[in-house]
Amino acid sequence: MKKTLLGLALSCVAGAALAAEYDDRWMLSPMVNFNATDSEKNLESNFGLGLGLGKFINDKWSVDVEYDQVSLDLDASPGSVSQTGLGLVTRYHFNEGSSMRPFLSAGIGWLDHDGSGSAAAQAIDSSDMMLNLGLGVRKMVTDRVGFMSEVKYRLDTDDYTGTASSYDDYVFSMGLNIALGAAAKAAAAPEIVEPAPQLDSDGDGVSDQTDRCPNTPAGMAVDAYGCHDGDADNDGVKDSMDKCPNSRAGAVVDADGCEVQVVIELQGVYFDLDKATLKDESIAILDAAVATMGEHGSIVVEVAGHTDSTASEAYNQDLSERRAQVVYNYLVEQGVSADRMTWKGYGESSPIATNDTAEGRAKNRRTELVIQD
Q: What is the pTM of this model?
């Protein structure tokens, strides 16, 4: 059974390393421990001190290196035993996003015993592996300081008494979590907008979304834009409704036949925080853009990168340029001709929403394809 528990702890420590927006600052954790020892150790329980250093490696898992020390008096003879532990502890937290987070913990390490005082005590000098399994709760009070309480079962495999192959101890801990460094600001995920269902109000076979002549008489033959009479400049707007009858060939026009700038926002293209590294979920969106560029082989676009106003103007300008170039490079690598694209970073200069709220900043962090021709 105890070998099974040791294997479980090793699996948890390894699993946490595989599992990366969350507070990833280093945490210093001074603590007071009450050590309730196995009766077969013939030691009196006592308070000791501990210190941990670790961090969250994603929104659920944290990993800490912990040191603890306690002096335990012998029951049957004068003298005491200094018990020192050093181990690696991983914790799985619940209540993501809350300041109060219960957790389960598992850890492995090394436990050393060194006796002093009587001859019997001085004869104690040995060390071996230990296993910790526990549960507790973590509560952040401010951006920098929080409290943590935990109870651990400790399996001590150091048979320094010669009475058992291992011992069952319990450790009750109370301590602080002190965050080191400035708080990281996690990027808010942009709202996912479901596309509206396509309607065809005039029943001409062209959806309202693309129908530039929405009131076509019933039974009238229409073109791809839902229009039924002549179109001298071939812009998709019938001459009787075209207010700009001499549009450039291939230009994008509005319902009146006048040229407009078309901006396609690449919703769902995300980058790692403060980096120009594409997240995995961005690839499907960019592949769809590649397909669209392939279907419309004559259009020329500018890949435009934008940021919110967090950080300095110079930093945001540089970040937007790097992100725009990353998207440009990906499209080229997937087969879009480089002479059909340019890229440019606009930094924080072109917001489409307020930068005073998290929702507004999320909208301003965007990548667009601006159709040039």
A: 0.45
